[in-house]
Design a protein that fits this description.
With about 550 residues, this protein is an alpha/beta fold. It folds into two domains: about 240 residues, TIM Barrel (Alpha-Beta Barrel), CATH 3.20.20; about 190 residues, no CATH class. Helix content is about 25%, strand content about 25%. It has an eight-stranded mixed beta sheet with strand order 3-2-1-4-13-14-15-16, with helices on one face. Helix 2 crosses helix 3 and helix 12 packs antiparallel against helix 13. The longest helix is centred in the C-terminal third of the chain and has 17 residues. The radius of gyration is 24 Å and the shape is globular. It starts with 5 loop residues before the first strand and ends in a 5-residue tail after the last strand. The relative contact order is 0.14.
Length: about 550
């Protein structure tokens, strides 16, 4: 596609030269033909600032509940021009076909998506996924030049033990010159060094600075994550002054209501407001991901693709314009990319449930529960042992003590009994939530105050073949349908954000104190992040990497 040639006068930010000076950027056939300084040596207060676009160095596009083209339409308004995107969510549902769906949809947008080959589908053998991606599948994916890296190696025990399949996948990436992304929450010391020595190049799971320092010391680049569920910016931003050359920013998972409000631009603004050197911050946000992943993204140098942004100033980074290959794709907070038709693909076979399916009988007068303790803004959980509340021979919730029932329902096979456990931290006073977004196998995860409400919420999701549902004791129901693999909507981003905001608001009206209740719920089946999680096969101890009883 050809776009008009144009010239733009602005304060040009040269991150490499650490300089800012008024200059005219001339764009010809989608590339930077020249950058001609005006002769002034200091920025012109009457001009905006032009700089390379922002890059999200690790994100699961599916977690925005949007297909790639719609994700791009929201992201460009905040100055994001590229993402390093792991499609393992849809990979767990549809396998290689899911990855190919993301590539095909993304091809209808000028946004610079870099997709990886999912390394862990399924994430563990302790859950039911909809597909498997083998080393042979990864070799096939690597035949496509649009697959830029081996996506996060979540099976860190397999890396430490040098598992044959794990190492075969890493070897395929190394043989083709592709980086290998890591995922090793809490790994420290010798274990971190052994993990890195297998060829792991990044980690986005650090939740403490000392953990990040251990990994930096052995050559692993650290991604500072600030998403809708996991927020580690405050814990890690102190690393930036000394380690800026080895850091990147990422969101990992970003729900549509927060994507409407901002993206990587928010992290840049916060980092600069803390007094960090603006060139160091922009290197983290704009340069490091492009260099590490060899992205085809321009960096505002002569001859580069004309991928850049124009901001009002270098304090709040209000994005005035975003350009991709010389095309103006966003202006003053509005996307200029057209909406495109969205194909629907899925893998969903669960059948309706009843309240009885969630009953948990006991013949004992006293039981102890292993309760999952969840935390706002974190993916990790803890274990709390609490006495069971028993009524009419059933172990039931204790709403007054915030001990709610958690259920995971296999969505790939009909007539499979739900896995049940108990959880603290959701704070619901009545009603229930259910979601077909349940990392990483994406079975149906539900939490609620009573079995009737849980069944209602789950049945809303099943009837839609995917979605997010909240139900109240007063009969209120809100559903966000997600017909694309049970993960993404077939609607425009702004509309999805509005519906999501409504279901999120209902969850909070039901009593949840969590900032993003549905995002937190989606991670309660992610077995590779300690401590306790629930898969469709049972309660799982992420430290011991084995199943444990929910009731003793």
């Amino acid at each position: 596609m050809n776009f008009p040639d144009f010239s733009l006068l602005s304060n040009v930010v040269d991150i490499f030269a650490r300089s800012i000076q008024p200059a005219t950027i001339r764009v010809v056939e989608g590339r930077i033909a020249s950058i001609t300084p005006t002769g002034a040596t200091t920025p012109d207060a009457n001009l905006p600032y032009a700089l390379p676009g922002f890059v999200d160095a690790h994100v699961h596009v599916e977690s925005s509940l949007l297909v790639p083209t719609e994700f791009a339409r929201l992201a460009v308004t905040h100055g994001t021009v590229a993402t390093v995107s792991d499609p393992h969510e849809i990979g767990n549902v549809l396998g290689v076909a899911g990855v190919e769906y993301m590539l095909e949809n993304a091809s209808h947008s000028p946004f610079k998506f870099c997709f990886g080959a999912p390394s862990c589908v399924p994430a563990t053998p302790f859950e039911t996924a909809g597909a498997e991606i083998t080393p042979a599948d990864i070799a096939r994916l690597f035949e496509n030049p649009k697959i830029g890296y081996l996506a996060e190696m979540m099976n860190w025990p397999g890396v430490l033990q040098r598992d044959t399949d794990v190492m075969a996948k890493i070897a395929l990436a190394q043989a083709t010159g592709r980086p290998v992304d890591g995922h090793a929450p809490g790994l420290r010391g010798d274990d971190a060094a052994h993990y890195a020595s297998a060829g792991i190049s990044t980690d986005h799971e650090c939740f403490a600075a000392d953990e990040a320092l251990d990994k930096l010391a052995v050559g692993v680049k650290i991604l500072i994550r600030e998403g809708s569920a996991a927020r580690n910016f405050d814990a890690l931003i102190g690393l930036l002054p000394e380690h800026y050359a080895h850091l990147m920013f990422c969101s990992d998972d970003k729900h549509p209501d927060t994507l409407v409000l901002g993206h990587i631009n928010q992290l840049v603004q916060r980092a600069v407001a803390l007094g960090n050197d603006v060139f160091h911050v922009l290197r983290v946000a704009c340069i490091n991901p492009v260099k590490h992943y060899n992205l085809p993204v321009g960096l505002l140098e002569e001859g580069d693709p004309a991928d850049f942004i124009v901001v009002k100033n270098l304090q709040d980074f209000q994005v005035l314009q975003t350009y991709l290959n010389g095309q103006l794709v966003a202006e003053n907070g509005q996307p200029l990319l057209p909406a495109t038709p969205i194909a629907v693909v899925n893998n969903f076979h669960a059948l309706p449930v009843t309240a009885v399916d969630f009953h948990l009988p006991t013949s004992q007068e006293y039981n102890t529960l292993r309760v999952i303790q969840c935390f706002d803004g974190q993916l990790i959980t803890a274990r709390v042992d609490l006495p069971a509340r028993i009524e009419n021979g059933l172990i039931v919730t204790n709403v007054a003590e915030d001990v709610l029932k958690l259920a995971v329902i296999n969505r790939y096979q009909p007539h499979v009994a739900p896995a049940l456990a108990f959880i603290r931290g959701f704070g619901l006073q009545h009603g229930a939530l259910a979601s077909s977004v349940g990392h990483d196998s994406h079975n149906i995860t539900a939490v609620g105050c009573d079995d009737e409400s849980i069944a209602r919420a789950v049945n809303l999701v099943i009837a839609a073949k995917g979605g997010l549902a909240a139900v109240g004791a007063d009969g209120r129901e809100i559903l966000v349908p997600l017909p694309v693999a049970g993960l993404m909507s077939d609607q425009e981003g702004q509309a999805v954000a509005g519906t999501y905001a409504a279901v999120d608001a209902l969850a909070k009206e039901l009593g949840s104190p969590l900032d993003a209740p549905f995002m937190t719920l989606s991670f309660m089946a992610l077995l590779v992040i300690p401590s306790l999680k629930l898969s469709d096969k049972g309660l799982f101890d992420g430290h011991r990497f084995e199943f444990v009883d929910a009731v003793e």
